[in-house]
Amino acid sequence: MFWTIYLGILAVSSIGFLVKGSYKTTPAKIDFVVSIITWIGLFGYVTDNQILNPFIWKFIFVGALLWDVIFSFNSKYYNGDKTLDDMPQPFRNIFIVIILIVTIGPLYYGLFHYAFK
Questions:
Q1: Spatial separation of the C-alpha atoms in residues 17 and 23, rounded to whole Å
Q2: In terms of Cα–Cα distance, which of 61, 87, 85, 72 is closest to 28?
Q3: CB of 39 within 8 A of CB of 10?
Q4: How far is 54 from 89, CA to CA, in rounded Å?
Q5: Is residue 40 classed exposed, middle or buried when 0-12, 13-18 and 19+ CB atoms within 10 A define those classes?
Q6: pLDDT tens digits, one per residue of 29-57
Q7: pTM score, two decimals?
Q8: Where are the domains of the chain?
Q9: Which of 39, 48, 64, 116 has the fewest CB atoms within 10 Å, counting from its CB?
């Protein structure tokens, strides 16, 4: 039940950002594509359906995780957002890590199990 709700939240937020027009920059568009691919992997994990070869999901897991971490620490490329610029660097990094763990931690937990099971 938790996984289904989480899938819905991820889908609604991605579609909401798309409809709102938030994916304007090239990195933001790449992030959207990465989000869709990882969502498909999590959907496969939740429904216990093999969508692609697990070998492919291993590469997707590593690449997407690296992308999300790098993209999150360079959030200024996301529509020029400078919300965290006023925060001191150590606190900003801690804040980003906490937000990453809370928001996409379950996604990568499921994707890891889907790729490496």
A1: 7
A2: 72
A3: yes
A4: 38
A5: middle
A6: 888 899 899 999 999 999 999 998 999 99
A7: 0.81
A8: 1-116
A9: 48
pLDDT in tens, the chain (117 residues): 888 999 888 888 888 878 877 777 788 888 889 989 999 999 999 999 999 899 999 999 999 999 988 887 776 555 555 666 677 778 877 887 888 888 888 999 999 999 998
Query: How confident is the prediction for the chain on average, in pLDDT?
Result: 84
Question: Count H helices, E strands: the chain?
Answer: 4, 0
Q: What are the phi and psi torsion angles at 79 (to 5°)?
A: 60, 25
- DSSP 3-state percent helix, strand, coil across the chain (nearest 5): 80, 0, 20
Residue 108 parent element (H or E): helix 89-116
Closest Cα to residue 37, out of 13, 61, 15?
Answer: 61
How distant is the alpha carbon of residue 112 from its chain centre? 13
